[in-house]
Amino acid sequence: MPPFDLPEGDPFGPHNLPYGVYSRTGSGERTVGVRLGDHVLDASAAARAIGSPHAPLLSRPTLNPLLAAGRTTWSEVRRTLMEAVTDPAHRAALEPLLHPLAEVTLHLPFEVADYVDFYSSEHHARNAGAIFRPGGGDALLPNWKHLPIGYHGRAGTVVVSGTDVVRPSGQRKAPADPVPVFGPSVRLDIEAEVGFVVGVPSRQGSPVALADFREHVFGLCLLNDWSARDIQSWEYVPLGPFLAKSFATSVSAWITPLEALEEARVAPPERTDPLLPYLDDTASEPAGYDLRISVALNGHVVSEPPFSTMYWTAAQQLAHLTVNGASLRTGDLYGSGTVSGPADHQRGSLLELTWNGRDPLELPDGKRTFLEDGDIVTLSAWAPGPDGLRVGLGEVSGRIVTG
Amino acid sequence: MPPFDLPEGDPFGPHNLPYGVYSRTGSGERTVGVRLGDHVLDASAAARAIGSPHAPLLSRPTLNPLLAAGRTTWSEVRRTLMEAVTDPAHRAALEPLLHPLAEVTLHLPFEVADYVDFYSSEHHARNAGAIFRPGGGDALLPNWKHLPIGYHGRAGTVVVSGTDVVRPSGQRKAPADPVPVFGPSVRLDIEAEVGFVVGVPSRQGSPVALADFREHVFGLCLLNDWSARDIQSWEYVPLGPFLAKSFATSVSAWITPLEALEEARVAPPERTDPLLPYLDDTASEPAGYDLRISVALNGHVVSEPPFSTMYWTAAQQLAHLTVNGASLRTGDLYGSGTVSGPADHQRGSLLELTWNGRDPLELPDGKRTFLEDGDIVTLSAWAPGPDGLRVGLGEVSGRIVTG
User: Fold this and answer.
1) Prior bond to B238 cis, omega within 30?
2) What structural domains does chain B harbor?
3) Chain A contacts of B210, Cβ < 8 Å?
4) Per-residue model confidence as pLDDT tens digits over B200-229
5) Which of A115, B71, B166, B365 would be A205's cystine partner, CB 3.0–4.6 Å?
6) Do A324 and B155 touch (CB under 8 A)?
7) How far is CA A239 from CA A235, B82, B294, in A?
8) Which of A143, A205, A234 sits opposite B166 (nearest CB)?
9) Which positions of chain A have pLDDT values less than 50?
């Protein structure tokens, strides 16, 4: 019987306990909470109530101090909170510390240091290649199977789920246009991704080995890397996407600790090309994650991208990101890249789902190629957990508004 | 007669007063200082000594609170400090607050929020185009004259002048190589740039107009965007440079306030292509800066790039960066892009100076194509100031070391 009258099999049961930062409606004070069903538990008060020494780490307006504390502490805090919510002896003390989600405001759970975005789904890369370079030979570029392609994004415009996204304006130029025109993007898209949150920093000049992934990365979240395709196609040569992506990136309000996802670990797809030693994971423990993502547009599921199909793992991405000596900071965030599976209904962007607008989606409220004002996009996901339970990931949702 | 026995015409006289953060040798405490000749003045103690209300803003381990305070306060603080160092009545009180530069440690003067790098020298872009796309028609890509091309870099690896730079390792692949090889970069380069420091933030969804540049940008510094050309050429398609740049970016320890550079403002080069309204500065006050940069390799000047030749101004870069609604934060840093003038000895990178290694530089200690271990690169600069004085910019220097 789950505690606190949670329904049997709730994906946000005591086996999950993702972390967030909330404030109670009417009070401005932010503090760390863990999600339990459709409630949030005041994590520091709960820790204090059961005599844990870690209460001060949780009595903060951001997760960063917990992130920085390192893997041993992460485990201890998690064990403490699991004990708190499962031992009936604590029930009376804890019930006043649970607040319905409807009565709290959820905030960006951590201060984002640097934000990097990868491009690690082979299916996505092949789709994008086929769309943008039709008839151009192999849809994958020559470097793709040798390294996880990535680039830096804008950390300052990462926003929490529920934040409206203002349609960006910018320059675009169709091939036939003599000069670029300026205006609101007419090809506004989503990218369904998973974001990884770095806890423990590293020293500049010292790469982080593949095997040290879980010493540095605390957990993951869902991430929507909003993308203006028309702005992107005009600006991106030769230095990559810039304004097409920098206006907003949405993340879920809940960070799922990697420890909650032990049962979801799976081997990544077979490596078809030999890897350089710093990326070679053929002898490593499984570093993929079996996350079942769902993309809903105005409440209608339009895609179900399987994260287990990602070619490059988060461990490889971290090893690559740091192999040149780039240091990590607490709060660094990196996105997996758009998650697309092999099937048509597993594509993680409208670019792919509509084949660059050629094949509109038929929704109950009309056809869609790219996003219209008022559209609400929601990513949700779950992963296999212990004892046949599901581990729910916090959803990430955003609505498009005019500027 | 300059105060405090400064030599006549010192480029770091009372007309300049760049800001930095220092600690006295043997003490760990960081505080804001202004440079006066070869000394640093304790800025908060000086403000206190003359009864200024702004002392608390300067009694911090970083410039960020001053940056956030806005243009009116920037002017007041500057006026206060100019008065302090020029009025003989204050001399006795201030002399104990001056410390020789040799007896202090200079720190990264502000917490970098996001770091963006532009590509705004037409001469540099044409040289790079001619080197990488020989015989490929116009060396400038079609978008170049329509928008200031830029991309995000890694904020967490921005380091202060004097910090050693570890030669990065990474993948490279010559066209003839069947597969990429891994190892220390063999084509390590510099990029001589000017960095602009944002003080006043902006709201997500609200672009910053061209005319509001000086409401948001506090000052500038010299910046060396170290670049591993071999890593770059293999990784950069299709999402731009990543590890080739993210290992280190060096900035000078002194931030020169824009107010010290009023006499250095010049009109940018003639705009050869019509600009969209948000970038059109043809009717604006001059937004270029006449900074005379010098690049020294192991003490030998190898280039003198003139910043006045930059096609895109810092005001245009800021307007472009935010036109999609991307917000600014206090501490945002953006680089001008490599500064290269029209003449051979005005090129801001070894890539251009040696024409991709074809024409080695002849230095007293041997030939150079790209950087060798132990090499020290120093950028320095000055600008025209009031009354025929020069405004010195703080140098940015770094030495290449093995990992």
Assistant:
1) yes
2) 3-107 (2.30.30.230), 115-401 (3.90.850.10)
3) none
4) 999 999 999 999 999 999 999 999 999 999
5) B166
6) no
7) 8, 42, 26
8) A205
9) 1
